[in-house]
Each structure stands twice: as structure tokens, then as C-alpha cells.
Amino acid sequence: MWRHYLVNVEGLIFVVDSTDTERIKVAADELHKILKHDRLRDMPILVFANKQDLPRALPVSDITEALSLSGVSQPYTM
Fold it and tell me: Where is GTP bound in this sequence (predicted)?
């Protein structure tokens, strides 16, 4: 499905719900599926941790770990 959205892409903005601890693994799986596409090989990534203002929000460091961003070869910003 994602390949249809990856035409003429210059970067990726990936939004994750900081309070949804049950679906963070699903988000990680989807992100890594997207990043496998050749069109995104050298594209910059912005990961936006939404709802950081809420008391139940995961810290950015936990989201970075849950999304396995240390294993991403593309340049990214959190």
C-alpha cells in the first residue's frame, strides 16, 4: 500500500501517538516496512511524537527505543 504514496517523495514525516503504548509496536513495524522501500533509502525522516503534553505520554527516549530508530540508516529527527 505505501508504495503508492512514495512517488516524488523528498522526506517522510511519521506521527506516533505518545500515549498509545499498546500500539507502539504496530507503529514500529509499519515504520520499518515503509523504510525498506528504495525510494526512501536516503530520505530524511521526521518522527513526530504526538500528545507529549499528556501525563501518560511516553518520553521521547522510550519512543526512540520502541521504534528501533538506532537501527535506521536514514537521517532522522525526533
Answer: 50-53
